[in-house]
User: Which sequence fits this backbone?
Protein backbone atom coordinates (compact mmCIF):
# COMPACT_ATOMS: atom_id res chain seq x y z
CA UNK A 1 0.00 0.00 0.00
CA UNK A 2 1.01 3.56 -0.50
CA UNK A 3 0.68 5.31 2.84
CA UNK A 4 1.35 8.95 3.67
CA UNK A 5 1.98 10.04 7.25
CA UNK A 6 1.93 13.75 8.01
CA UNK A 7 4.05 14.66 11.01
CA UNK A 8 4.66 17.75 13.08
CA UNK A 9 7.71 18.88 15.03
CA UNK A 10 6.71 20.08 18.49
CA UNK A 11 8.50 21.04 21.70
CA UNK A 12 9.26 18.28 24.18
CA UNK A 13 6.26 18.25 26.51
CA UNK A 14 8.51 17.99 29.55
CA UNK A 15 10.23 21.30 28.80
CA UNK A 16 9.76 24.27 31.08
CA UNK A 17 8.17 26.92 28.87
CA UNK A 18 8.57 30.67 28.88
CA UNK A 19 6.76 33.11 26.66
CA UNK A 20 9.00 34.64 24.01
CA UNK A 21 9.69 38.34 23.57
CA UNK A 22 6.92 38.72 20.94
CA UNK A 23 4.37 37.58 23.52
CA UNK A 24 2.56 35.28 21.07
CA UNK A 25 4.76 32.18 21.15
CA UNK A 26 7.08 30.32 23.47
CA UNK A 27 10.73 31.23 23.84
CA UNK A 28 12.46 28.41 21.95
CA UNK A 29 15.85 28.99 23.57
CA UNK A 30 17.05 25.74 25.10
CA UNK A 31 13.82 23.91 24.22
CA UNK A 32 14.20 20.45 22.72
CA UNK A 33 11.98 19.65 19.75
CA UNK A 34 10.96 16.22 18.57
CA UNK A 35 8.31 14.47 16.51
CA UNK A 36 4.92 15.05 18.11
CA UNK A 37 3.80 12.03 20.15
CA UNK A 38 0.57 11.52 18.20
CA UNK A 39 2.46 11.81 14.92
CA UNK A 40 4.88 9.12 16.11
CA UNK A 41 1.93 6.79 16.76
CA UNK A 42 0.74 7.51 13.21
CA UNK A 43 4.18 6.68 11.78
CA UNK A 44 4.25 3.42 13.73
CA UNK A 45 0.76 2.49 12.49
CA UNK A 46 1.73 3.26 8.89
CA UNK A 47 4.86 1.13 9.12
CA UNK A 48 3.01 -1.77 10.73
CA UNK A 49 0.30 -1.77 8.07
CA UNK A 50 2.86 -1.90 5.28
CA UNK A 51 4.84 -4.61 7.06
CA UNK A 52 1.68 -6.67 7.35
CA UNK A 53 0.35 -5.98 3.85
CA UNK A 54 3.60 -6.73 2.06
CA UNK A 55 5.53 -4.47 -0.28
CA UNK A 56 4.42 -0.88 -0.10
CA UNK A 57 5.68 2.60 0.45
CA UNK A 58 5.46 4.80 3.53
CA UNK A 59 6.04 8.48 2.82
CA UNK A 60 6.31 11.11 5.56
CA UNK A 61 5.44 14.76 5.02
CA UNK A 62 5.85 17.86 7.13
CA UNK A 63 5.21 21.56 6.65
CA UNK A 64 7.75 23.93 8.16
CA UNK A 65 11.24 25.41 8.15
CA UNK A 66 14.36 23.29 7.59
CA UNK A 67 14.38 22.16 11.22
CA UNK A 68 11.55 19.73 10.31
CA UNK A 69 14.05 17.76 8.24
CA UNK A 70 15.36 16.28 11.50
CA UNK A 71 11.84 15.10 12.33
CA UNK A 72 11.39 13.65 8.84
CA UNK A 73 14.71 11.82 9.12
CA UNK A 74 13.60 10.42 12.45
CA UNK A 75 10.53 8.95 10.74
CA UNK A 76 12.81 7.50 8.06
CA UNK A 77 15.11 6.08 10.75
CA UNK A 78 12.03 4.28 12.10
CA UNK A 79 11.49 2.82 8.63
CA UNK A 80 9.64 5.28 6.38
CA UNK A 81 10.90 5.08 2.79
CA UNK A 82 11.11 8.73 1.82
CA UNK A 83 10.14 12.19 2.99
CA UNK A 84 8.78 15.46 1.64
CA UNK A 85 9.33 18.81 3.34
CA UNK A 86 6.92 21.56 2.33
CA UNK A 87 9.07 24.49 3.24
CA UNK A 88 7.91 27.61 5.06
CA UNK A 89 9.86 30.31 6.90
CA UNK A 90 8.28 29.42 10.21
CA UNK A 91 5.79 26.86 11.50
CA UNK A 92 2.39 28.20 10.37
CA UNK A 93 -0.16 28.62 13.14
CA UNK A 94 -3.17 28.48 10.78
CA UNK A 95 -4.15 24.81 10.50
CA UNK A 96 -6.22 25.46 7.37
CA UNK A 97 -3.17 26.86 5.58
CA UNK A 98 -1.12 23.81 6.59
CA UNK A 99 -3.94 21.55 5.35
CA UNK A 100 -4.03 23.34 1.99
CA UNK A 101 -0.29 22.88 1.53
CA UNK A 102 -0.45 19.19 2.43
CA UNK A 103 -3.54 18.54 0.31
CA UNK A 104 -1.87 20.12 -2.73
CA UNK A 105 1.03 17.70 -2.33
CA UNK A 106 -1.06 14.63 -1.45
CA UNK A 107 -3.64 15.12 -4.20
CA UNK A 108 -1.70 13.55 -7.04
CA UNK A 109 0.27 11.16 -4.84
CA UNK A 110 -2.00 8.16 -5.32
CA UNK A 111 -2.05 7.33 -1.59
CA UNK A 112 -4.34 4.57 -0.29
CA UNK A 113 -4.19 5.87 3.24
CA UNK A 114 -3.24 9.23 4.75
CA UNK A 115 -2.46 9.25 8.46
CA UNK A 116 -2.14 12.07 10.99
CA UNK A 117 -1.87 12.35 14.75
CA UNK A 118 -5.27 13.26 16.19
CA UNK A 119 -3.84 16.62 17.18
CA UNK A 120 -0.45 18.12 17.97
CA UNK A 121 0.74 18.71 21.49
CA UNK A 122 1.63 22.37 20.93
CA UNK A 123 -1.66 23.72 19.54
CA UNK A 124 -4.09 20.90 20.33
CA UNK A 125 -6.22 22.18 17.42
CA UNK A 126 -6.80 18.92 15.53
CA UNK A 127 -7.67 20.79 12.34
CA UNK A 128 -5.16 19.59 9.77
CA UNK A 129 -6.15 15.94 9.27
CA UNK A 130 -9.85 16.61 8.95
CA UNK A 131 -9.28 19.65 6.76
CA UNK A 132 -7.09 17.64 4.36
CA UNK A 133 -9.87 15.04 4.13
CA UNK A 134 -12.38 17.80 3.36
CA UNK A 135 -10.19 19.43 0.72
CA UNK A 136 -9.50 16.08 -0.98
CA UNK A 137 -13.09 14.89 -0.45
CA UNK A 138 -11.96 11.67 1.24
CA UNK A 139 -13.66 9.68 4.01
CA UNK A 140 -12.23 10.66 7.38
CA UNK A 141 -12.05 8.86 10.71
CA UNK A 142 -10.72 10.80 13.68
CA UNK A 143 -8.96 9.59 16.84
CA UNK A 144 -8.68 5.94 15.86
CA UNK A 145 -7.48 3.71 18.71
CA UNK A 146 -7.29 0.63 16.45
CA UNK A 147 -6.94 0.40 12.69
CA UNK A 148 -7.20 -2.61 10.38
CA UNK A 149 -6.89 -2.64 6.61
CA UNK A 150 -8.18 -5.59 4.57
CA UNK A 151 -9.65 -6.10 1.12
CA UNK A 152 -9.39 -2.46 0.12
CA UNK A 153 -11.40 -1.39 3.15
CA UNK A 154 -10.52 -0.02 6.54
CA UNK A 155 -12.05 -0.54 9.94
CA UNK A 156 -11.24 1.51 12.99
CA UNK A 157 -12.18 1.72 16.63
CA UNK A 158 -12.86 5.02 18.32
CA UNK A 159 -13.05 5.52 22.07
CA UNK A 160 -16.17 7.23 23.36
CA UNK A 161 -16.99 8.17 26.93
CA UNK A 162 -17.48 4.72 28.49
CA UNK A 163 -17.82 2.85 25.17
CA UNK A 164 -16.05 2.01 21.96
CA UNK A 165 -17.29 2.54 18.41
CA UNK A 166 -16.33 0.49 15.35
CA UNK A 167 -16.39 2.22 12.01
CA UNK A 168 -15.81 1.00 8.44
CA UNK A 169 -14.71 3.04 5.50
CA UNK A 170 -13.50 2.60 1.90
CA UNK A 171 -9.99 3.50 0.78
CA UNK A 172 -8.46 5.91 0.04
CA UNK A 173 -9.15 7.60 3.35
CA UNK A 174 -7.77 9.93 5.99
CA UNK A 175 -7.40 8.59 9.53
CA UNK A 176 -6.17 10.52 12.56
CA UNK A 177 -4.56 8.42 15.26
CA UNK A 178 -5.14 8.41 19.01
CA UNK A 179 -2.57 7.52 21.63
CA UNK A 180 -2.11 3.96 22.83
CA UNK A 181 -2.72 2.41 19.40
CA UNK A 182 0.87 1.18 19.07
CA UNK A 183 4.15 1.85 20.83
CA UNK A 184 6.40 3.76 18.44
CA UNK A 185 9.51 1.68 17.73
CA UNK A 186 12.95 2.88 18.76
CA UNK A 187 14.88 4.18 15.76
CA UNK A 188 17.60 1.54 15.45
CA UNK A 189 21.20 2.64 15.02
CA UNK A 190 21.29 1.09 11.56
CA UNK A 191 18.00 2.84 10.81
CA UNK A 192 19.53 6.18 11.81
CA UNK A 193 22.47 5.56 9.49
CA UNK A 194 20.18 4.41 6.65
CA UNK A 195 17.92 7.46 7.02
CA UNK A 196 20.76 9.71 5.88
CA UNK A 197 20.69 7.99 2.50
CA UNK A 198 16.90 7.98 1.98
CA UNK A 199 15.37 10.65 -0.28
CA UNK A 200 14.16 13.85 1.37
CA UNK A 201 12.56 16.17 -1.13
CA UNK A 202 12.02 19.85 -0.34
CA UNK A 203 9.36 21.96 -2.07
CA UNK A 204 7.83 25.35 -1.30
CA UNK A 205 4.61 25.02 0.71
CA UNK A 206 1.50 26.32 -1.03
CA UNK A 207 -0.12 27.73 2.10
CA UNK A 208 -2.50 30.16 0.41
CA UNK A 209 -3.92 32.84 2.68
CA UNK A 210 -2.80 32.55 6.30
CA UNK A 211 -5.77 33.99 8.13
CA UNK A 212 -5.43 32.87 11.74
CA UNK A 213 -2.56 34.20 13.83
CA UNK A 214 -1.66 33.71 17.49
CA UNK A 215 -1.97 37.14 19.08
CA UNK A 216 -0.92 36.61 22.66
CA UNK A 217 -0.02 33.77 24.94
CA UNK A 218 -0.53 33.58 28.68
CA UNK A 219 0.75 31.08 31.21
CA UNK A 220 -1.66 29.90 33.91
CA UNK A 221 -1.69 32.23 36.94
CA UNK A 222 0.48 31.13 39.83
CA UNK A 223 -1.38 29.20 42.45
CA UNK A 224 -2.03 31.19 45.62
CA UNK A 225 -0.36 29.89 48.78
CA UNK A 226 -2.37 27.45 50.88
CA UNK A 227 -3.65 28.45 54.29
CA UNK A 228 -4.16 26.52 57.49
CA UNK A 229 -7.67 27.02 58.86
CA UNK A 230 -7.32 25.15 62.12
CA UNK A 231 -6.39 21.78 63.55
CA UNK A 232 -8.24 18.55 64.39
CA UNK A 233 -11.99 17.90 64.34
CA UNK A 234 -12.78 21.46 65.38
CA UNK A 235 -11.61 22.75 62.02
CA UNK A 236 -13.85 20.43 59.95
CA UNK A 237 -17.02 22.58 59.85
CA UNK A 238 -15.03 25.57 58.63
CA UNK A 239 -13.21 23.39 56.09
CA UNK A 240 -16.48 22.02 54.71
CA UNK A 241 -17.91 25.54 54.50
CA UNK A 242 -14.91 26.80 52.55
CA UNK A 243 -14.93 23.77 50.23
CA UNK A 244 -18.60 24.46 49.50
CA UNK A 245 -18.62 28.22 49.23
CA UNK A 246 -15.11 29.25 48.26
CA UNK A 247 -13.57 26.32 46.37
CA UNK A 248 -17.03 25.15 45.21
CA UNK A 249 -15.87 21.53 44.97
CA UNK A 250 -18.53 20.03 47.26
CA UNK B 1 19.71 16.43 32.36
CA UNK B 2 19.66 20.06 31.29
CA UNK B 3 22.19 20.91 28.59
CA UNK B 4 23.61 23.74 30.70
CA UNK B 5 26.77 24.25 28.68
CA UNK B 6 25.32 24.01 25.16
CA UNK B 7 27.18 20.77 24.42
CA UNK B 8 24.30 19.39 22.34
CA UNK B 9 25.14 21.95 19.68
CA UNK B 10 28.54 20.26 19.29
CA UNK B 11 26.85 16.98 18.34
CA UNK B 12 25.63 16.11 14.86
CA UNK B 13 21.96 15.38 14.21
CA UNK B 14 22.84 11.72 13.81
CA UNK B 15 24.73 11.63 17.13
CA UNK B 16 21.79 13.22 18.91
CA UNK B 17 19.37 10.80 17.24
CA UNK B 18 21.43 7.84 18.43
CA UNK B 19 21.59 9.19 21.95
CA UNK B 20 17.87 9.96 22.07
CA UNK B 21 16.90 6.50 20.84
CA UNK B 22 19.04 4.76 23.48
CA UNK B 23 17.85 7.27 26.09
CA UNK B 24 14.23 6.35 25.43
CA UNK B 25 15.08 2.64 25.55
CA UNK B 26 16.80 3.07 28.93
CA UNK B 27 13.94 5.19 30.31
CA UNK B 28 11.30 2.69 29.22
CA UNK B 29 13.05 -0.66 29.48
CA UNK B 30 15.90 -0.42 31.96
CA UNK B 31 15.01 2.10 34.66
CA UNK B 32 11.69 0.49 35.63
CA UNK B 33 13.32 -2.89 36.37
CA UNK B 34 16.95 -2.27 37.26
CA UNK B 35 16.53 -1.62 40.99
CA UNK B 36 14.86 -5.01 41.53
CA UNK B 37 17.42 -6.83 39.40
CA UNK B 38 20.19 -5.19 41.35
CA UNK B 39 18.74 -6.27 44.67
CA UNK B 40 18.22 -9.80 43.35
CA UNK B 41 21.73 -9.89 41.90
CA UNK B 42 20.59 -10.66 38.34
CA UNK B 43 21.52 -9.24 34.96
CA UNK B 44 18.28 -8.38 33.06
CA UNK B 45 18.80 -10.87 30.23
CA UNK B 46 15.41 -10.03 28.77
CA UNK B 47 16.77 -6.76 27.40
CA UNK B 48 19.53 -8.43 25.32
CA UNK B 49 17.36 -8.99 22.20
CA UNK B 50 16.14 -5.40 22.28
CA UNK B 51 19.65 -4.04 22.69
CA UNK B 52 20.69 -6.16 19.72
CA UNK B 53 17.71 -4.98 17.66
CA UNK B 54 18.69 -1.39 18.39
CA UNK B 55 22.19 -2.18 17.15
CA UNK B 56 24.07 -1.47 20.38
CA UNK B 57 26.60 -4.31 20.11
CA UNK B 58 29.78 -3.28 18.34
CA UNK B 59 27.97 -0.19 17.10
CA UNK B 60 31.21 1.49 15.96
CA UNK B 61 32.34 -1.52 13.89
CA UNK B 62 31.69 -1.60 10.12
CA UNK B 63 28.35 -2.34 8.51
CA UNK B 64 29.85 -5.12 6.38
CA UNK B 65 30.02 -7.27 9.54
CA UNK B 66 26.42 -6.56 10.49
CA UNK B 67 27.25 -3.62 12.76
CA UNK B 68 25.90 -0.08 12.69
CA UNK B 69 29.11 1.63 11.55
CA UNK B 70 28.68 4.62 13.88
CA UNK B 71 31.42 7.10 14.69
CA UNK B 72 33.07 7.01 18.09
CA UNK B 73 31.17 9.95 19.54
CA UNK B 74 27.84 8.27 18.80
CA UNK B 75 29.24 5.07 20.31
CA UNK B 76 30.28 7.01 23.42
CA UNK B 77 26.80 8.50 23.74
CA UNK B 78 25.34 4.97 23.67
CA UNK B 79 27.62 4.04 26.57
CA UNK B 80 26.57 7.19 28.42
CA UNK B 81 22.89 6.40 28.09
CA UNK B 82 23.26 2.72 29.01
CA UNK B 83 25.18 3.59 32.16
CA UNK B 84 22.56 6.21 33.03
CA UNK B 85 20.57 3.02 33.56
CA UNK B 86 23.23 0.93 35.27
CA UNK B 87 26.97 0.28 35.04
CA UNK B 88 26.17 -3.43 34.69
CA UNK B 89 24.09 -2.84 31.57
CA UNK B 90 26.80 -0.66 30.08
CA UNK B 91 29.44 -3.23 31.04
CA UNK B 92 27.49 -5.91 29.19
CA UNK B 93 27.54 -3.84 26.00
CA UNK B 94 31.16 -2.72 26.51
CA UNK B 95 32.36 -6.28 26.90
CA UNK B 96 30.38 -7.54 23.93
CA UNK B 97 31.50 -4.71 21.64
CA UNK B 98 34.91 -3.48 22.75
CA UNK B 99 36.32 -6.62 24.36
CA UNK B 100 34.81 -9.54 22.45
CA UNK B 101 33.87 -8.19 19.00
CA UNK B 102 36.75 -5.72 18.69
CA UNK B 103 39.56 -8.31 19.12
CA UNK B 104 37.95 -10.50 16.46
CA UNK B 105 37.68 -7.44 14.22
CA UNK B 106 41.24 -6.26 14.94
CA UNK B 107 43.15 -9.56 15.17
CA UNK B 108 40.89 -12.11 13.48
CA UNK B 109 41.11 -13.59 10.00
CA UNK B 110 38.52 -12.51 7.44
CA UNK B 111 36.83 -15.88 7.95
CA UNK B 112 36.66 -15.40 11.72
CA UNK B 113 35.22 -11.90 11.29
CA UNK B 114 32.53 -13.10 8.89
CA UNK B 115 31.73 -16.09 11.07
CA UNK B 116 31.46 -14.40 14.46
CA UNK B 117 30.76 -10.67 14.14
CA UNK B 118 27.30 -10.71 12.51
CA UNK B 119 26.03 -13.22 15.09
CA UNK B 120 27.48 -11.14 17.90
CA UNK B 121 25.89 -7.96 16.54
CA UNK B 122 22.49 -9.66 16.70
CA UNK B 123 23.13 -10.96 20.21
CA UNK B 124 22.83 -14.56 19.04
CA UNK B 125 26.37 -15.08 20.35
CA UNK B 126 27.47 -13.35 23.54
CA UNK B 127 31.16 -12.98 24.25
CA UNK B 128 33.41 -12.32 27.22
CA UNK B 129 37.03 -11.30 27.61
CA UNK B 130 39.45 -13.39 29.65
CA UNK B 131 42.62 -11.50 30.54
CA UNK B 132 42.68 -10.99 34.33
CA UNK B 133 43.75 -13.91 36.49
CA UNK B 134 43.38 -14.45 40.24
CA UNK B 135 46.97 -13.31 40.87
CA UNK B 136 47.43 -11.02 37.87
CA UNK B 137 45.13 -7.97 37.76
CA UNK B 138 47.08 -4.76 37.28
CA UNK B 139 49.96 -6.88 36.00
CA UNK B 140 48.36 -8.94 33.23
CA UNK B 141 51.76 -9.60 31.64
CA UNK B 142 52.45 -11.98 34.51
CA UNK B 143 49.62 -14.31 33.50
CA UNK B 144 50.19 -18.06 33.79
CA UNK B 145 47.41 -19.33 31.49
CA UNK B 146 49.23 -21.24 28.77
CA UNK B 147 48.32 -22.55 25.32
CA UNK B 148 50.45 -25.23 23.69
CA UNK B 149 50.44 -25.77 19.96
CA UNK B 150 50.11 -29.40 18.86
CA UNK B 151 51.71 -31.00 15.83
CA UNK B 152 48.46 -30.71 13.84
CA UNK B 153 48.24 -26.97 14.56
CA UNK B 154 45.56 -27.36 17.24
CA UNK B 155 46.02 -25.98 20.76
CA UNK B 156 45.71 -27.22 24.34
CA UNK B 157 44.74 -24.49 26.82
CA UNK B 158 45.23 -24.61 30.59
CA UNK B 159 44.74 -21.95 33.25
CA UNK B 160 42.09 -19.77 34.82
CA UNK B 161 40.67 -16.27 34.57
CA UNK B 162 38.81 -14.21 37.14
CA UNK B 163 36.48 -11.18 37.33
CA UNK B 164 35.10 -11.96 33.87
CA UNK B 165 31.99 -9.92 33.02
CA UNK B 166 29.39 -12.00 31.09
CA UNK B 167 31.54 -15.10 31.81
CA UNK B 168 28.69 -17.46 32.59
CA UNK B 169 26.34 -15.99 29.95
CA UNK B 170 28.80 -16.02 27.07
CA UNK B 171 28.90 -18.61 24.32
CA UNK B 172 32.45 -17.62 23.46
CA UNK B 173 35.36 -16.28 25.45
CA UNK B 174 38.26 -14.31 24.01
CA UNK B 175 41.03 -15.83 26.08
CA UNK B 176 44.53 -14.39 26.32
CA UNK B 177 47.23 -16.92 27.03
CA UNK B 178 50.99 -17.27 26.84
CA UNK B 179 52.07 -19.78 24.25
CA UNK B 180 54.34 -22.79 24.03
CA UNK B 181 55.87 -22.49 27.48
CA UNK B 182 57.33 -19.02 26.87
CA UNK B 183 56.86 -16.93 30.07
CA UNK B 184 57.52 -13.61 28.28
CA UNK B 185 54.71 -11.10 27.55
CA UNK B 186 55.48 -11.23 23.85
CA UNK B 187 54.21 -14.83 23.68
CA UNK B 188 50.65 -13.76 24.58
CA UNK B 189 48.08 -14.60 21.88
CA UNK B 190 44.31 -14.39 21.72
CA UNK B 191 41.97 -17.38 21.24
CA UNK B 192 38.27 -17.68 20.53
CA UNK B 193 37.10 -20.35 22.95
CA UNK B 194 33.49 -21.59 22.71
CA UNK B 195 32.16 -22.13 26.22
CA UNK B 196 30.75 -25.53 25.21
CA UNK B 197 34.28 -26.86 24.65
CA UNK B 198 35.21 -29.79 26.90
CA UNK B 199 37.33 -28.69 29.84
CA UNK B 200 35.89 -25.14 29.95
CA UNK B 201 33.95 -24.20 33.08
CA UNK B 202 32.49 -20.85 34.11
CA UNK B 203 31.29 -20.20 37.63
CA UNK B 204 29.62 -17.02 38.86
CA UNK B 205 31.42 -15.13 41.61
CA UNK B 206 29.07 -14.69 44.55
CA UNK B 207 28.81 -12.11 47.28
CA UNK B 208 29.30 -8.97 45.17
CA UNK B 209 28.15 -5.68 46.69
CA UNK B 210 28.77 -3.84 43.41
CA UNK B 211 27.70 -4.48 39.79
CA UNK B 212 25.03 -6.76 41.17
CA UNK B 213 22.99 -6.54 37.94
CA UNK B 214 25.89 -8.08 36.01
CA UNK B 215 27.38 -11.56 35.78
CA UNK B 216 30.96 -11.79 36.98
CA UNK B 217 32.60 -15.18 36.66
CA UNK B 218 35.65 -17.29 37.08
CA UNK B 219 36.71 -19.26 33.99
CA UNK B 220 38.73 -22.46 34.30
CA UNK B 221 40.43 -24.20 31.35
CA UNK B 222 41.49 -27.74 31.95
CA UNK B 223 43.15 -29.29 28.88
CA UNK B 224 40.78 -27.40 26.59
CA UNK B 225 41.47 -28.63 23.05
CA UNK B 226 41.06 -25.90 20.45
CA UNK B 227 41.17 -26.18 16.65
CA UNK B 228 43.86 -24.20 14.77
CA UNK B 229 41.35 -21.54 13.76
CA UNK B 230 40.62 -20.66 17.41
CA UNK B 231 43.79 -18.56 17.34
CA UNK B 232 43.36 -14.89 16.45
CA UNK B 233 46.17 -14.82 13.89
CA UNK B 234 47.04 -11.13 14.09
CA UNK B 235 47.28 -11.06 17.89
CA UNK B 236 50.75 -10.91 19.40
CA UNK B 237 52.07 -9.81 22.75
CA UNK B 238 50.46 -7.98 25.65
CA UNK B 239 49.86 -5.05 23.32
CA UNK B 240 46.90 -6.87 21.72
CA UNK B 241 44.70 -7.18 24.81
CA UNK B 242 45.76 -3.69 25.88
CA UNK B 243 44.46 -2.34 22.55
CA UNK B 244 41.08 -3.89 23.41
CA UNK B 245 41.20 -2.27 26.84
CA UNK B 246 41.87 1.11 25.24
CA UNK B 247 38.62 0.69 23.28
CA UNK B 248 36.69 -0.28 26.38
CA UNK B 249 38.23 2.45 28.55
CA UNK B 250 37.22 5.01 25.95
CA UNK B 251 33.61 3.80 26.29
CA UNK B 252 33.86 3.84 30.08
CA UNK B 253 34.94 7.48 30.04
CA UNK B 254 31.57 8.21 28.43
CA UNK B 255 29.56 5.65 30.35
CA UNK B 256 30.30 7.01 33.80
CA UNK B 257 29.07 10.44 32.71
CA UNK B 258 25.67 8.75 32.35
CA UNK B 259 25.86 7.38 35.90
CA UNK B 260 26.77 10.84 37.17
CA UNK B 261 23.93 12.44 35.18
CA UNK B 262 21.41 9.98 36.62
CA UNK B 263 22.56 10.71 40.18
CA UNK B 264 22.63 14.46 39.56
CA UNK B 265 19.12 14.57 38.08
CA UNK B 266 17.78 12.57 40.98
CA UNK B 267 19.51 14.76 43.56
CA UNK B 268 18.44 18.00 41.87
CA UNK B 269 14.83 16.91 41.72
CA UNK B 270 14.93 15.82 45.36
CA UNK B 271 16.56 19.10 46.43
CA UNK B 272 13.77 21.08 44.79
CA UNK B 273 10.98 19.03 46.35
CA UNK B 274 12.18 17.90 49.76
CA UNK B 275 11.03 20.43 52.35
CA UNK B 276 12.98 20.80 55.59
CA UNK B 277 12.92 23.73 57.99
CA UNK B 278 9.98 25.06 55.98
CA UNK B 279 11.68 25.30 52.58
CA UNK B 280 13.05 23.03 49.84
CA UNK B 281 16.54 21.87 50.81
CA UNK B 282 17.70 23.12 47.40
CA UNK B 283 17.34 26.60 48.88
CA UNK B 284 20.16 26.00 51.35
CA UNK B 285 23.59 27.14 50.36
CA UNK B 286 25.27 23.85 51.27
CA UNK B 287 23.14 21.94 48.73
CA UNK B 288 23.48 24.62 46.09
CA UNK B 289 27.26 24.45 46.49
CA UNK B 290 27.09 20.65 46.10
CA UNK B 291 24.90 20.91 43.01
CA UNK B 292 27.08 23.61 41.44
CA UNK B 293 30.21 21.49 41.95
CA UNK B 294 28.52 18.42 40.48
CA UNK B 295 27.22 20.24 37.41
CA UNK B 296 30.67 21.73 36.79
CA UNK B 297 32.42 18.36 37.03
CA UNK B 298 29.89 16.68 34.71
CA UNK B 299 30.30 19.42 32.11
CA UNK B 300 34.10 19.10 32.27
CA UNK B 301 33.90 15.32 31.87
CA UNK B 302 31.53 15.68 28.90
CA UNK B 303 33.99 17.99 27.17
CA UNK B 304 36.91 15.64 27.88
CA UNK B 305 35.10 12.64 26.37
CA UNK B 306 33.72 14.58 23.42
CA UNK B 307 37.16 15.89 22.52
CA UNK B 308 38.65 12.42 22.97
CA UNK B 309 35.95 10.97 20.71
CA UNK B 310 36.65 13.52 17.99
CA UNK B 311 40.36 12.65 18.21
CA UNK B 312 39.54 8.93 18.08
CA UNK B 313 37.50 9.51 14.93
CA UNK B 314 40.42 11.43 13.43
CA UNK B 315 42.80 8.65 14.47
CA UNK B 316 44.94 11.00 16.54
CA UNK B 317 44.21 9.90 20.11
CA UNK B 318 46.69 8.05 22.32
CA UNK B 319 46.15 5.38 25.00
CA UNK B 320 47.56 7.86 27.53
CA UNK B 321 44.81 10.34 26.65
CA UNK B 322 42.28 7.55 27.18
CA UNK B 323 43.88 6.93 30.58
CA UNK B 324 43.40 10.59 31.47
CA UNK B 325 39.72 10.48 30.50
CA UNK B 326 38.98 7.17 32.23
CA UNK B 327 40.79 8.27 35.38
CA UNK B 328 39.19 11.70 35.57
CA UNK B 329 35.67 10.74 34.59
CA UNK B 330 35.33 7.64 36.75
CA UNK B 331 36.69 9.53 39.73
CA UNK B 332 34.24 12.36 39.00
CA UNK B 333 31.28 9.98 38.79
CA UNK B 334 32.29 8.11 41.93
CA UNK B 335 32.46 11.37 43.89
CA UNK B 336 29.17 12.63 42.45
CA UNK B 337 27.30 9.40 43.22
CA UNK B 338 28.45 9.60 46.82
CA UNK B 339 27.55 13.28 47.17
CA UNK B 340 24.11 12.65 45.64
CA UNK B 341 23.53 9.78 48.02
CA UNK B 342 24.30 12.12 50.89
CA UNK B 343 22.06 14.87 49.53
CA UNK B 344 19.19 12.38 49.41
CA UNK B 345 19.50 11.76 53.15
CA UNK B 346 17.81 8.61 54.43
CA UNK B 347 16.04 7.70 51.17
CA UNK B 348 19.43 7.70 49.48
CA UNK B 349 20.11 4.23 50.86
CA UNK B 350 17.03 2.74 49.14
CA UNK B 351 17.16 0.72 45.92
CA UNK B 352 14.16 2.79 44.78
CA UNK B 353 16.64 5.63 44.26
CA UNK B 354 19.62 5.17 41.97
CA UNK B 355 22.41 6.99 43.78
CA UNK B 356 23.62 4.25 46.11
CA UNK B 357 23.40 1.61 43.37
CA UNK B 358 25.49 3.82 41.08
CA UNK B 359 27.85 4.61 43.96
CA UNK B 360 28.47 0.92 44.63
CA UNK B 361 28.76 0.11 40.90
CA UNK B 362 31.28 2.86 40.31
CA UNK B 363 33.66 1.36 42.86
CA UNK B 364 34.03 -1.54 40.41
CA UNK B 365 34.39 0.79 37.46
CA UNK B 366 37.06 2.68 39.43
CA UNK B 367 38.88 -0.63 39.85
CA UNK B 368 38.41 -2.39 36.52
CA UNK B 369 39.92 -1.65 33.12
CA UNK B 370 43.01 -0.23 34.76
CA UNK B 371 42.55 0.95 38.30
CA UNK B 372 42.61 4.67 39.02
CA UNK B 373 46.10 4.20 40.42
CA UNK B 374 47.38 2.37 37.36
CA UNK B 375 46.15 5.21 35.14
CA UNK B 376 47.96 7.66 37.43
CA UNK B 377 51.15 5.72 36.73
CA UNK B 378 50.46 5.65 32.99
CA UNK B 379 50.18 9.43 33.05
CA UNK B 380 53.19 9.68 35.35
CA UNK B 381 55.26 7.71 32.89
CA UNK B 382 54.02 9.85 29.98
CA UNK B 383 55.05 12.98 31.86
CA UNK B 384 58.41 11.91 33.30
CA UNK B 385 59.53 9.18 30.97
CA UNK B 386 60.10 7.03 34.07
CA UNK B 387 58.25 3.72 34.31
CA UNK B 388 56.86 3.12 37.80
CA UNK B 389 55.82 -0.46 36.95
CA UNK B 390 59.33 -1.83 36.59
Assistant:
Amino acid sequence: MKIAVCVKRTPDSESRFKIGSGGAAIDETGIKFDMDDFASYAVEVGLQINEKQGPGETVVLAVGPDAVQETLRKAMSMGADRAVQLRTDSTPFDGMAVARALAAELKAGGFDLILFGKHAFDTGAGIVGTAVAAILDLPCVTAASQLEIAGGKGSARRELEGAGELVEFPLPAVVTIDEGIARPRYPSLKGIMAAKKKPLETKPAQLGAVRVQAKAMALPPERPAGRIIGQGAAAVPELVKLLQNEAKVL
Amino acid sequence: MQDFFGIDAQLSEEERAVRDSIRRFVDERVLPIIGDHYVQGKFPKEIIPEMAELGVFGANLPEEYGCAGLNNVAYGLIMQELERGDSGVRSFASVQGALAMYPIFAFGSEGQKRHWLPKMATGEIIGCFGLTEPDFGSNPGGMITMAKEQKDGSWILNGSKMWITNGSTAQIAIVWAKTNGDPEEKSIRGFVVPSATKGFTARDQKGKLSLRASDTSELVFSDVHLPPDALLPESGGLKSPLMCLTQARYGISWGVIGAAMACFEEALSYAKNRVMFGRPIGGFQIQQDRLADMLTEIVKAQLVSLHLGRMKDEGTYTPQQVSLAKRNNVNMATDIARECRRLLGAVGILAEYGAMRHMANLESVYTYEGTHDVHSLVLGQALTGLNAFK
Notes: Chain B has a mean pLDDT of 97. The domain at 239-384 of chain B is CATH 1.20.140.10 (Butyryl-CoA Dehydrogenase, subunit A; domain 3). The radius of gyration of chain B is 21 Å. Chain B is about 50% helix and 15% strand.
